[in-house]
Design goal:
The chain is of the alpha/beta class and 381 residues long. The chain has helices spanning 2-19, 29-37, 55-59, 66-78, 90-95, 97-113, 154-157, 160-164, 167-177, 208-225, 250-258, 270-281, 301-310, 359-380; strands at 43-46, 83-87, 117-124, 183-190, 232-233, 262-265, 287-292, 314-318. An 8-stranded parallel β-sheet has the order 5-4-3-2-1-8-7-6. Helix 13 packs parallel to helix 14.
Length: 381
């Protein structure tokens, strides 16, 4: 199986050279393991400030909210989180790259103040395929993540020539922060092939897998050309025959073929989570679970976080603070909105005033991260 993946990698490198793209090398498994050994346990969350409905509202000048970010990352620090996964957006960079970088710099300063590193997400294939700058629409009452937008939008994703115009965005971001120790990992594309059947399926590209695969491969080439010191990844999230590349679609195959460290999403019960972990261990690379924790699905902190820690896997739940994204609501609220608190909360840990949704969950998280700190301190002594 590994030989098949390696053969695909050799063929792709040849195509890159013929096409004039950089053919910088994927990290060896040994280099990836050495990197992993230098990191703390990467435990944290996918972070959006509670005052933002989406990535555009997070990063645009008029709505960037450092006070809220500082307060909320303080709560993350208190429960022992060492990392956050944060989504950028190409439109904000295109509108004003200098202002965009100043705000990203400020975010990194705040995160570092709280002893939290960052996984940057460059592109995203989930939810609204038609992003627009400016004032963002208000959340739809009772609906999960009703304002989130894709990056790039479907018009760009559909056109290989327009995709190529994204190269300066990728290379400028990765070059600026490629030697910044506050950045821990580059996640180049979140769920690139997501058809969003539950929400925007009728508006989606019919050939999204093929178009997403093209941009995934270009993104790896562009990012490698910037020579970052951090590893690159694109996560696998559906299909689940992850140890059998011949059964995967084009995008998932590219992600596993090109990633320096393997990342994945799993919102299932711990038994299924462990099956996915064992399938991905066959690649012989460090693993990061960049999305988990959907209480109604049986993916919760009590059962899943110990599995991830015991297997030395980075762990990023979805959500930190209940806010405008409304991700405490389940995915099904796109069809059946819920006004008020669902039972249980789908995602998120804290209410907007900083009180925990579940004190027992917060205590558990803290106990696991405290144990990790003791191990790290002992190893340094």
């Amino acid at each position: 199986m590994r030989n098949r993946v390696q053969l695909l990698g050799v063929l792709f490198s040849s195509l890159l050279v013929m096409g004039g793209l950089s053919a910088a090398e994927r990290w060896s498994p040994e280099r990836a393991e050495k990197w992993s050994a230098t990191q703390p346990w990467l435990v944290g969350c996918n972070y959006l400030p509670s005052s933002a409905v989406n990535q555009l509202e997070m990063w645009q000048a008029d709505t960037f909210d450092p006070e809220t970010i500082d307060r909320e990352l303080g709560w993350a620090e208190e429960i022992g989180f060492t990392s956050v996964r944060v989504f950028l957006h190409d439109l904000v960079w295109k509108q004003d790259s200098e202002g965009f970088f100043k705000r990203v710099d400020q975010f990194l300063e705040i995160a570092d103040k709280h002893n939290i590193g960052v996984m940057m997400v460059i592109f995203d294939g989930v939810w609204d395929p038609n992003p627009k700058l400016g004032t963002q629409r208000a959340p739809t009452p009772g609906v999960h993540n009703s304002g989130w937008v894709q990056s790039p939008g479907k018009t760009i994703l559909a056109d290989p020539q327009l995709q190529d115009e994204l190269e300066p965005y990728v290379t400028s971001v990765v070059r600026r922060y490629g030697n910044d120790s506050r950045i821990q990992v580059w996640d180049l594309f979140n769920e690139p092939d997501n058809g969003n059947e539950n929400s925007y399926g009728s508006e989606e590209l019919k050939d999204k897998d093929e178009r997403a695969e093209q941009l995934v491969r270009k993104s790896f080439a562009w990012a490698r050309a910037a020579e970052p010191m951090q590893p690159l990844t694109v996560g696998v999230w559906v299909g689940f025959d992850w140890d059998q590349p011949e059964k995967l679609n084009l995008t998932h195959r590219a992600a596993l073929e090109l990633s320096d460290v393997i990342s994945f999403h799993d919102y299932n019960k711990p038994e299924m989570l462990l099956q996915r972990i064992n399938a991905l261990k066959t690649y012989g690379r460090p693993l990061l679970c960049t999305e988990y924790m959907a209480r109604g699905n049986g993916s919760n902190f009590a059962d899943c976080l110990p599995v991830l820690k015991d297997n030395k896997i980075g762990a990023y739940c979805w959500g930190l603070v209940d806010g405008k994204s409304q991700t405490k609501q389940p995915w099904s609220t796109w069809q059946n909105p819920i006004l008020g608190d669902p039972s249980p909360w789908h995602h998120d840990i804290f209410r907007v005033d900083g009180t925990p949704y579940s004190q027992s969950e917060v205590s558990l998280i803290r106990s696991l991260t405290e144990a990790n700190e003791k191990v790290e301190t002992s190893s340094r002594d």
